[in-house]
Amino acid sequence: MTPATFKLNFRHLTPDGRELGVRHADSELAAVDAARLREILHAMEKAIAQQSPSDPAAPEIRITSPHGVFMVKSANGRLRLHSWSLKSGTREMTVDAIIETVGGKPVEEKPPAARRVAHAPAGKGSAGLLGRIPRWVKVAVLVVLFGGINAVSGWMLMRPPPDLLPPHEMLSAAATERLLATIAGEFETGSRPGDRWMTIVRSGNIRVVKYGPKPDETLLTARAALVNGQEVLITSARSMIEIKDADTLVLFGDTYKRMKL
After folding, report:
1. Residue 172 pLDDT > 50, yes or no?
2. What digits encode the pLDDT tens for the residues 58-108?
3. pTM
4. Is 199 in contact with 212 (CB distance < 8 Å)?
5. What is the helix (H) or strand (E) element at residue 218, kind and residue range?
6. CA nearest 63: which of 81, 75, 86, 79?
7. Which residues, including other chains, have CB under 8 Å from residue 82's CB and lie 6 or more apart?
8. Which residue, 29, 32, 34, 151, is the most exposed by fewest CB within 10 angstroms?
9. 90-92, strands of its sheet edge to edge
10. Cα–Cα distance, 172 to 152 (Å, whole number)
């Protein structure tokens, strides 16, 4: 079996991974084996560990493999892998774990530690006091309590949902398909913790991930609409994605720029 090779695209980083900076033009290596990829990732890891906090460079390597497209970025001086194959969408990883993942071997993601709930031992304080309350009083309180809960729940279900969208006209499925084909791709507000990464696919599915120690993921669907004569996307969360141009989108006031290949 022929060993797998990877296509690498570099941004703010030299092709050997040793130097980073905005002065470095985008570059590409067409066919790199796993051993060479490991060397480049180790060099990148060393370079970003020495990066000054004031350095505006956002080094990244896009890895295209037989198993998908992956993005390796800098996060707090460490390597972070972005991939649809990860449940969290993004995860801080070692070089060895990255090599295994892009090579097609799934890496187990540990679930958050279960919270332990401490149960106080029964005592004579409040428990003893409740024990002296007549049963009919307890039943009456529960009836009033549940009646109030049901009334509030019914009111919340019957009231119309809030809608912060401006007046708009939904467009046809064909118009939606055409618009999505134009803007489909990956966008981000930046590459540091707190920034967001948005992926739009032609089917209308949208994924938004917030970078950080605990990535926050939102899955949406979208349809095309007209607002003041301009085409926009209306999401399943009743939010609007403004389309400034093919490479610039705005969601909830945040500007997303298309990620370069």
Report:
1. yes
2. 899 999 888 778 889 887 788 988 876 565 567 788 999 999 888 877 555
3. 0.45
4. no
5. strand 216-227
6. 81
7. 70, 71, 72, 73, 89, 90, 197, 209
8. 151
9. 27-33, 5-11, 60-65, 68-75, 78-82, 90-92
10. 38
